[in-house]
Amino acid sequence: MPIRRFRSAAEMEGTVWLDRDDPRLWPTIASVWDLSARLCPMHFPPGLRKHRSIEEANQLNQEWEATNVLRSQPG
After folding, report:
1. DSSP assigned state of 11
2. From the CB of residue 47, how many other CB atoms can be counted at a distance below 10 Å?
3. Distance (Å, rounded) from C-alpha 36 to C-alpha 74?
4. Could you read off the pLDDT of 5-64 as tens digits, one per residue?
5. Exposed e or buried b for every residue in 15-33, given b needs 16+ CB within 10 A?
6. Distances (CA, A) of 13 to 2, 4, 6, 10, 66
7. How far is the C-alpha of 29 from the C-alpha of 35, rounded, in Å?
8. What's the predicted TM-score (pTM) here?
9. H or E element: which one contains 65?
10. Residues 52, 50: Cα–Cα separation, whole Å
């Protein structure tokens, strides 16, 4: 993805958004997802887990998310 420089916010109008019919849209989305996965990889322990309640499942999910957020912060 090329880097563009703008002298004002007015120059940015219309340059960022792609129409949903634009054939470049899906490759652009894929490249953004790939970049985010490389810069801040999310890690969830492998395997299947059974929970006794939805609250228990939500609690484990929140713990995993918190761990991933802490891992992504510098320092």
Report:
1. G
2. 5
3. 16
4. 888 888 877 666 788 899 999 999 999 999 988 887 878 888 999 999 999 999 999 998
5. eeeeeeeeeeeeeeeeeee
6. 17, 13, 10, 6, 36
7. 10
8. 0.48
9. helix 54-72
10. 7
